[in-house]
């Protein structure tokens, strides 16, 4: 059956739906961004809202039957507000809650406890006020600093677009030699010595594409394509050609005129001579097409 189909063996496993990297501008995105996307969206993050079981098998307490252990992560909802803060891997959980024994269950949303706090980046040399959770602050203290927290955790664990953007800025600053501390050479060398080891897993291209959302990467790609092509609009091209033709025709006709006076070097006399040349050019049969487009010329009745 496979040899009778134009797709061959590929059709035996079913039709594969094209993804975001298989068509359009998404297919032109570099491998550096695809690597980041796999780390952000396709990698299993660390367990936050449940306690994973390390065993492969367990015995049921009621039936005493042995069954395999399944660590299935809870479905999380990333709200727009979660990408404006750093929630430390937490998100909104949607489920049901039975509040009374005699009534049916009702939908319920579990939202993490949020607070606004100030974090400090040694590499960027700046203080930032962001919305965080208690887990975020605990992880920052465990990693001994905000920069270590961003650089040690993977994209799937950071989860927030703001955290990924800050991580990209930190990596770019380390790549450029920490320009924010250029006035303090000793402190600059200490920071480079402490954080330069985080640049080893990344190439310059991967750092440039790291932390962008899909729409942000598409806009970045479009800007690069526009800068590479640099297409000149036809309106500007035709306008420049028309101006050159009018200028050449006006100069040739101006040469047939009488020589001006001694004060012909002034700008006013130059303008008058150009106007006279253009009016004389309109009357010539060779330039009839110029008379049609000249708005200041005389209309034939």
TrEMBL record:
Which molecular function terms from Gene Ontology are attached? structural constituent of ribosome
> Where is it found, in Gene Ontology cellular component terms?
mitochondrial large ribosomal subunit
Keywords noted in UniProt: Ribonucleoprotein, Ribosomal protein
- Keyword Ribonucleoprotein attributed: yes
What does the similarity note say? Belongs to the bacterial ribosomal protein bL28 family.
Q: Which PANTHER family match?
A: 39S RIBOSOMAL PROTEIN L28, MITOCHONDRIAL (PTHR13528), LARGE RIBOSOMAL SUBUNIT PROTEIN BL28M (PTHR13528:SF2)
UniProt name for this protein: Large ribosomal subunit protein bL28m
| Organism whose genome encodes this protein | Drosophila rhopaloa
* Gene from which this protein is expressed: LOC108040332
């Amino acid at each position: 059956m496979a040899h009778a189909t134009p797709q061959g063996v590929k059709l035996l496993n079913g039709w594969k739906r094209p993804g975001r990297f298989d068509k359009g501008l998404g297919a032109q995105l570099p491998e550096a961004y695809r690597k980041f996307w796999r780390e952000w969206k396709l990698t299993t993050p660390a367990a936050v809202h449940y306690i994973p079981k390390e065993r492969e098998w367990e015995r049921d307490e009621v039936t005493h039957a042995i069954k395999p252990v399944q660590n299935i992560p809870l479905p999380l909802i990333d709200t727009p507000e979660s990408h404006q803060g750093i929630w430390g891997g937490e998100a909104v959980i949607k489920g049901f809650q039975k509040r009374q024994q005699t009534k049916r269950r009702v939908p319920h949303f579990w939202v993490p406890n949020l607070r606004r706090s100030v974090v400090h980046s040694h590499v960027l040399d700046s203080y930032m006020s962001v919305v965080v959770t208690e887990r975020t602050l605990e992880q920052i203290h465990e990693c001994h600093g905000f920069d270590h927290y961003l650089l040690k955790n993977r994209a799937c664990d950071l989860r927030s677009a703001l955290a990924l953007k800050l991580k990209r800025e930190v990596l770019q600053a380390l790549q450029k030699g920490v320009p924010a501390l250029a006035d303090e050479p000793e402190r600059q060398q200490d920071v480079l010595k402490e954080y330069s080891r985080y640049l080893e897993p990344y190439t310059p291209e991967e750092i440039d594409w790291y932390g962008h959302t899909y729409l942000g990467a598409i806009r970045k790609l479009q800007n690069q394509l526009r800068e590479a092509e640099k297409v000149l609009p036809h309106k500007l091209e035709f306008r420049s050609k028309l101006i050159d033709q009018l200028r050449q025709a006006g100069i040739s006709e101006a040469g047939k005129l009488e020589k001006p006076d001694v004060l012909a070097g002034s700008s006013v006399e130059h303008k008058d001579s150009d106007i006279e040349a253009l009016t004389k050019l309109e009357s010539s049969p060779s330039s009839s097409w110029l008379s049609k487009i000249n708005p200041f010329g005389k209309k034939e009745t």
